[in-house]
Design brief:
5-stranded mixed β-sheet, 39% helix, 12 helices, 18 strands, Nucleotidyltransferase, domain 5, alpha+beta
């Protein structure tokens, strides 16, 4: 199978690195061709802090996915998270030289490129510029201005900013692992892509992705992304607390959390006890499940409250901005028992656990449909979309050439230049930027 037919998403997490190879089947669903996962060793709280270890972890995951599928991995789409990510709202406008012509892709691109030129703090770079609503000649709340007449085109943008050095480090890891960097996407956006339905995005929903090192938040309303944020705590801090609180080693703490952990202390009876083998000839330790869930509860409440502060910052309490679909929890941390009930109790919002199976083909592996893989599936979807856009652009370019050769320049077909999505533009910029950084 040629490279164009399948794409690869690579999720570089704090606890695990996952590579997923997939393609779109004839029904527009995603068929998973192979997966690989490895323990992530060089990442702390979503940020690469040991390049060598990260490279070998990436290689491990990629090799496994290649073996699994019998395909070769070339270019990958990677997610970025970490506490250095921040987002801001910005509005910008362009004045069009000729208001007698309709607004086209070039105008929208010009407006977006203008936002990329915003001056950021030293050491920061713009990762995404996401248009929210447009205004044409003062007429507001326009979702798609293409094809309209107007002299002044303005828009509100959701701008996501990250640290240059972190972006470079990810690029470096990918390159050194022998791969090409197709694109970098914000992880909460990828997870949202995989887990949320269009209806939820319209009604208003907050996606909370609880990973090992970070908890990512993406808020949608009226089908548009409104707020993103990365909180530097995740499942690992819960494990740390259990380790400290019960004086046991990390491996045991992680197992305890997964097997017996609960976010709601009232659930466990006082006499439920689990015995843990001691280290090298020491006595085994006995831990009551009640204490275990008290430790977990305290930390989870802290994480959920921080996320809730972000949801309030977005303005959930205003009638117009109310998130009707409530909260969707995903990521490995969302599998904690009774977490859904706790989140509903703290926020008073409807909550469900999000599985990334909405866009997967029916015969996909059960395991991939677990919340653990939400980000990886979202990155794969992004990779497929990017590939589809590039193929369309190439086909159009070929058609254009043929038309020119035949000598009948066809009026009214979008030129191949227009087809270049903002995304491709950005990834080109990023590639140049990384190449220069070498």
């Amino acid at each position: 199978m040629e490279q164009g037919k399948y794409s690869v998403g690579l999720d570089i997490g704090t606890t695990k690195i996952v590579a997923i190879i997939g393609r779109e089947n004839e029904y527009g669903k995603i068929e998973i061709l192979g997966t690989g996962r490895s323990k992530s060793l060089g990442v702390h709280r979503g940020v690469v802090n040991n390049i060598t270890q990260t490279i070998s972890s990436i290689q491990q995951a990629v090799e496994q996915a290649e073996l699994n599928s019998g395909l070769k991995i070339g270019s990958v789409v990677v997610g970025i998270a970490g506490q250095h990510i921040r987002s801001l709202q910005h509005s910008d406008y362009i004045t069009r030289p000729n208001s007698e012509e309709v607004i086209n892709d070039d105008d929208l691109e010009k407006l977006c490129n203008q936002v990329y030129k915003l001056v950021m703090l030293p050491g920061e770079e713009i990762i995404h510029v996401l248009p929210q609503e447009y205004k044409v000649d003062g007429q507001s709340e326009i979702k798609e201005p293409k094809g309209m007449y107007g002299g002044r085109l303005e828009a509100n943008f959701h701008v996501v900013v990250g640290q240059v050095s972190s972006i470079k480090n990810i690029g470096r890891c990918i390159k050194s692992a022998g791969l090409d960097l197709g694109n970098i996407t914000l992880e909460p956006l990828a997870s949202a892509e995989a887990v949320l339905s269009q209806e939820e995005k319209e009604a208003g929903v907050a996606l909370i992705d609880i990973g090992g090192g970070t908890t990512d938040l993406a808020i949608f309303k009226d089908g548009i992304i409104r707020h993103t944020s990365v909180i530097p705590f995740g499942g690992n801090v819960i494990t740390e607390d259990i380790k400290e609180g019960c004086s046991i080693i990390e491996k045991q703490a992680e197992l305890l959390k997964m097997k017996f952990g609960s976010a709601w202390p009232g659930e466990n009876k006082d006499n439920e006890i689990v015995s843990i083998p001691g280290l090298r000839g020491r006595e085994p330790k006995e831990i009551t499940l009640k204490n275990l869930s008290k430790i977990i509860h305290a930390r989870v409440v802290e994480i959920v409250e921080q996320v809730y502060v972000e949801i309030k910052n977005y303005g959930h309490e205003e009638q117009k901005k109310k998130l009707i679909a409530g909260i969707v929890l995903t990521g490995g941390g969302s599998q904690l028992n009774h977490l859904k009930q706790l989140v509903e109790y703290i926020t008073g919002m409807d909550t469900r656990i999000g599985y990334p199976n909405e866009h997967l083909a029916g015969d996909s592996d059960e395991e991939i449909a677990s919340p653990l893989y939400a980000t990886a599936v979202g990155l794969l979807m992004n990779a497929l979309e990017t590939t589809a856009n590039q193929n369309a652009t190439e086909e159009e370019a070929v058609l254009e050439e043929e038309k020119v050769l035949v000598g009948q320049e066809h009026v009214g077909s979008p030129s191949s230049k227009e087809r270049k999505s903002i995304f491709d533009k950005w990834s080109e910029k990023l590639k140049d930027f990384l190449d220069n950084a070498e």
